[in-house]
């Protein structure tokens, strides 16, 4: 937007200066979710779509997801027409793939295999880029094993995968099988990523995302959404989605991330 300052001199308009008005750029709000659906054991994809519809999501990371058109069927309910399903099933179990469902087209799709000496193998993270509200986002959806030391899947992700990411804004979601404060999560935070729980000031030590169907045997909050701090982002909303009748052994989580 440009403004012109005019002076009237003897009945004539004389332009004395033209300058650009500085208007602050509006932050870009991206609404994301993560959900381990336990190979669709307890719900049809249409039920998952109906559950997530009120959140007006831009992009979703699923894990332990069935192969085939399962993710696309969720997208049909949500009006999200773009998806990518990986080819590596967690621990080589049936229908435990990772997928990305998006409202906007996906590019640069890839899957990173992760193998360690201790813990189940293989694990993986699927990745894609998409443009949301005019900005490019790199998005990862993962399912990895828990680890107490520095020899787990999380460490491989932090040391070998994420440092090679060149996109300015990055979001990494999924079932980490680790709690905030564990060595595994500290490794990912050390690579320049921040859990949404911290911006939201949610004390996850008193909550759980697994086991939703058997709360007496819960393992705490092990599903997380993280963003790269170099992006300058801030989380403005989000939570664990609580259901009276769980549709999986995990609870879905969501967040609204505001990128400057």
- Count the DSSP helices: 5
- What is the total tally of β strands? 14
> How are the strands ordered across the major sheet?
5-6-4-3-14-13
Per CATH, the class reads: Alpha Beta
C-alpha end-to-end distance: 20 Å
H/E element sequence: EEEHEHEEEEEHEHEHEEE
Number of domains: 1
What does this structure look like?
The protein is α+β, with helices and mostly antiparallel strands. It has one domain (25-259): Deoxyribonuclease I, Chain A, CATH 3.60.10. Helices cover 15% and strands 38% of the residues. The chain contains 5 helices and 14 strands. The protein has helices spanning 45-52, 70-78, 153-161, 183-190, 196-200; strands at 2-9, 12-20, 28-36, 59-65, 82-85, 97-102, 106-114, 123-132, 135-143, 170-175, 193-195, 223-228, 234-240, 253-259. The strands form 3 sheets. Strands 5-6-4-3-14-13 form a 6-stranded mixed β-sheet. Strands 7-8-9-10-12-11 form a 6-stranded mixed β-sheet. Helix 1 runs parallel beside helix 2 and helix 3 packs parallel to helix 4 (183-190). The longest helix has 9 residues, at 70-78. The two termini are 20 Å apart.
């Amino acid at each position: 937007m440009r403004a012109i300052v005019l002076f009237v001199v003897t009945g004539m308009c004389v332009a004395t200066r033209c300058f650009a008005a500085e208007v602050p750029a509006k932050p870009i709000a991206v609404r994301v979710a993560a959900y381990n659906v336990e190979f669709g054991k307890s719900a049809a994809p249409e039920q998952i779509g109906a559950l997530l519809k009120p959140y007006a999501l831009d992009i979703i990371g699923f894990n332990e997801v069935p192969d085939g058109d399962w993710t696309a069927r969720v997208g049909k309910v949500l009006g999200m027409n773009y998806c990518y399903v990986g080819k590596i099933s967690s621990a080589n179990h049936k229908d435990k793939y990772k997928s990305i469902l998006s409202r906007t087209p996906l590019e640069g799709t890839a899957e990173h295999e992760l193998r360690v000496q201790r813990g189940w193998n293989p694990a993986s993270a699927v990745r894609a880029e998409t443009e949301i509200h005019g900005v490019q986002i790199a998005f990862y959806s993962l399912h990895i094993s828990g680890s107490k030391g520095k020899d787990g899947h999380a460490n491989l992700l932090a040391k070998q995968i994420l440092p090679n990411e060149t996109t300015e804004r990055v979001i990494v979601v999924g079932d980490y099988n680790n709690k905030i404060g564990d060595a595994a999560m500290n490794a990912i935070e050390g690579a320049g990523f921040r859990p949404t729980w911290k911006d939201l000031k949610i004390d996850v030590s008193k909550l759980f995302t697994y086991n939703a169907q058997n709360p007496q045997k819960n393992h705490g909050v092990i599903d997380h959404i993280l963003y790269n701090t170099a992006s300058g982002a801030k989380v403005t909303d989000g939570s664990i989605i609580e259901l009276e009748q769980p549709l999986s052994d995990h609870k879905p989580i969501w967040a609204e991330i505001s990128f400057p």
